[in-house]
Design goal:
Blueprint lengths: L1 H7 L2 E7 L2 H12 L10 E6 L3 H14 L1 E7 L12 E6 L5 E7 L1 H21 L1 H4 L4 E6 L9 E5 L4 H17 L8 H11 L1 E6 L6 E3 L4 H6 L9 H5 L5 E4 L6 H10 L1 H5 L2 H4 L5 H9 L35 E3 L17 E3 L17 E3 L82 E3 L17 E3 L12 E2 L8 E3 L2 H12 L2 H6 L6 E6 L6 H13 L3 E6 L6 H13 L2 E5 L4 H10 L8 E6 L8 H5 L8 E3 L2 H16 L2
Parallel strand pairs: 2-5, 11-12, 12-13, 14-15, 18-19, 18-20, 20-21, 21-22
Antiparallel strand pairs: 1-2, 3-4, 4-5, 6-7, 6-8, 7-10, 8-9, 16-17, 17-19
Helix pairs in contact: 10-13, 16-20, 17-18
Length: 652
């Protein structure tokens, strides 16, 4: 059964077994202690490229397994638009496990929506926990089901609640971490199987949402105490209750009535709620709230038609704007910072100098919008339509534009440094004189893109498609990262060289064709930790001054067979190999693999004075194309001597 699923799926996520503590909590809180209702102790997920493959696999599974329950959200989506196919499968021993069939775009939608629903959950939790220091635990595997959220109250103060939320979220990440797997894989596993825990203080003035520091938690491994949420809670008497998506009736009216004074005092927070049943209950108590959830036509104010209107700063930040039509509207200097914008139309809207910092755009069109000088720093524009948009001199630093479309967009002079542009379509876009330093362009399309005068230094271009792009002498391309995220870093100094390296690493037949071009590439091997980064920079600078192309390989991770083959491929392209043997034992392994078979590629070994050569270097040094070890006292002496050493070693 497993094989038939894997063949048609793009990838398998999991399976994952729920740990005992969480299973007991879920059973007690949501199923009144009835363990027979706990049918997702073992959880799995498969991602499919097309619905045809998904349903074909479902039919095959029904024939070969005992499917006791299924729910098709592709036929009946969740109110947010999320879709998946949930299955409960019974094994021969009677044990029931859960499977979800997913589509990539809805995995992406889930990541976008978590920010909204975390805030909704914190506000809604007052209905079951009152004004207390509390956390909301969201089981991401069952995120769109009524039994997915638990409210825990009884914390002594906000800091204690926030620390509990952080530790519990981090623990759910660490339980899914696998050694050697890239961060992207861990992120997907957490979005599928993890827990998102958020905290709020008694009066709603402060909140902590672990999602806000997710990237740090994914990369940084914690100390044991930093994930010990059980130990933190042992000395506290905590109360756990379920938080249902639909709280209605007399109970809701009673709770809202009890807290009406507090709710009236929090008008900004109420704009985040976006749930019709809660909005109506507050209206019944005379509390003003003009926001409705997506798809609720009974609240037309949420779907205002503002085509051609003049809109200025009266639309303030911290709003949840749903379904509004701003087509052609004049909205210069509008303030939407930290807003949630869902299903809106900004086609052709004039929004020069708008403040859209940290705004979250979901299924929103910004095509042909005039956003010159706008501030979109740290905004989430995943999958956004920005075709023909005018973004000259806009600030898009650290914005997330994954899979967005910016065909023929105008971004001259824009600040796009550290932005995420994975899979972004930039065909025909004008990026002249823009700042793209350290931007992530992995898998992006830059066909006919204008890059004159742009600064791409430190950008990741692995897998990007660059054809007929306009690049001139003013275009800065230093230290382009040409390896995928999660792998050892390989850098090059031009897009063309980066694409060449990508081609050669992925296509063995192309290597022989390019042998004749190996006249300028110099491969640098070493272990360049932060204190010794100056050595790396000195080597690069010296090579660039001689019109050579440095390709650096930093042994930041343990070597393996794939790594050795990669370095061997790069060495076959090189005119010269420079190996810094200081604090770099892994270099010896790679030299052993490439030196005996590459007599045409000289090797220049470097060693910091006072450091010791690794024991097996004598075996490598016997080859005549391995030059004499060059000692250097400090960076300055290396800079002074390296040009001559390179010329002599490579006979330039």
């Amino acid at each position: 059964m497993h094989d038939s699923l894997s063949i048609m799926a793009i990838r398998e996520v999991g399976p994952v077994e729920m740990d005992r503590t969480r299973a007991l909590e879920r059973c007690k809180v949501h199923f009144d202690g009835n363990a027979s209702r706990l049918v997702d102790l073992v959880r799995g997920a498969f991602v499919f490229d097309t619905s045809a493959e998904l349903y074909a696999t479902f039919e095959r599974l029904q024939e070969s397994a005992d499917v006791v329950y299924s729910r098709d959200r592709f036929a009946q989506p969740a109110y947010s638009g999320y879709q998946d196919l949930l299955l409960r499968v019974r094994a021969s021993n009677g044990f029931i496990s859960s499977l979800r069939f997913l589509a990539p775009e809805f995995q992406l939608a889930k990541a976008q929506e978590l920010s909204i629903y975390s805030r909704i959950g914190l506000l809604e939790s007052i209905l079951v926990a009152g004004r207390s220091f509390r956390v909301v635990v969201c089981d991401l595997y069952n995120h769109y089901d009524p039994d997915s959220r638990t409210v825990i109250s009884g914390f002594e103060n906000f800091d204690c609640a926030a620390e509990y939320a952080r530790r519990r979220t981090w623990d759910s990440i660490e339980m899914l971490r696998s050694v050697g797997h890239p961060t992207d894989d861990l992120r997907e596993k957490w979005l599928t199987f993890g827990e998102l825990v958020s905290a709020v203080d008694a009066d709603g003035a402060r909140s902590y949402i672990a999602l806000d520091e997710l990237e740090q938690l994914l990369v940084q491994g914690p100390a044991p105490v930093e994930r010990d949420w059980n130990g933190l809670a042992e000395a506290i008497s905590l109360k756990r209750v379920p938080l249902r998506r639909q709280v209605t009736g007399d109970e809701l009216d009673k709770i809202v009535s009890q807290h009406s004074a507090w709710l009236r005092s929090r008008p900004v927070d109420l704009e985040h709620i976006g749930l019709g049943h809660l909005v109506q209950a507050m209206k019944d108590q005379g509390i003003v709230c003009s926001t409705a959830r997506p798809g609720m036509d009974e609240y037309p104010a949420a779907r205002a038609d503002l085509r051609g209107a003049s809109v200025y700063s009266e639309i303030h930040h911290k709003r949840c704007l749903v379904g509004a039509n701003f087509q052609g509207a004049l909205a210069n200097e509008i303030d939407f910072r930290d807003s949630i914008v869902h299903g809106c139309n900004f086609y052709g809207a004039r929004m020069a100098d708008a403040d859209l910092r940290q705004a979250l755009f979901i299924t929103t069109s910004l095509s042909h919008a005039k956003l010159n000088g706008a501030n979109l720093s740290e905004a989430s524009l995943i999958g956004a339509d920005l075709d023909h948009a005018e973004l000259s001199n806009a600030d898009l630093s650290a914005a997330n534009l994954t899979n967005a479309s910016l065909i023929n967009a105008k971004l001259a002079g824009a600040h796009i440094n550290k932005a995420i542009l994975r899979g972004t379509d930039l065909e025909g876009a004008d990026l002249s004189c823009s700042d793209l330093q350290e931007a992530d362009l992995e898998g992006a399309r830059l066909i006919g893109t204008e890059l004159s005068g742009a600064n791409l230094s430190g950008a990741r271009i692995y897998g990007s498609s660059v054809w007929d792009a306009s690049i001139d002498e003013a275009t800065k391309q230093n230290d382009l990262v040409v390896s995928p995220s999660g792998m050892a870093t390989i850098t090059a100094d031009s897009i063309e060289v980066g694409q060449l390296i990508y081609l050669l690493l992925k296509n063995e037949k192309a290597r022989s064709v390019m042998d004749a071009l190996a006249t300028k590439i110099v491969l640098i091997l070493g272990r360049f930790s932060e204190p010794r980064k100056l050595v790396l920079d000195a080597i690069r600078a010296a090579l660039r001054c001689q019109d050579l192309v440095p390709v650096m390989f930093d042994f930041e991770k343990p070597t393996n067979r794939d790594l050795t083959e990669t370095i061997s491929t790069l060495a076959h392209l090189a005119r010269l190999v420079i190996a810094d043997l200081t604090d770099a034992r892994c270099v010896g392994i790679e030299l052993q693999a490439i030196v005996p078979v590459l007599p045409s590629v000289p090797v220049l070994p470097l060693l910091e004075a006072g450091a010791e050569l690794y024991p097996m270097f004598d075996h490598i040094q016997k080859y005549p194309w391995v030059r004499e070890v060059q000692l250097y006292e400090h960076v300055e002496s290396l800079v002074a001597s390296l040009p001559g050493l390179v010329r002599l070693a490579a006979r330039l």
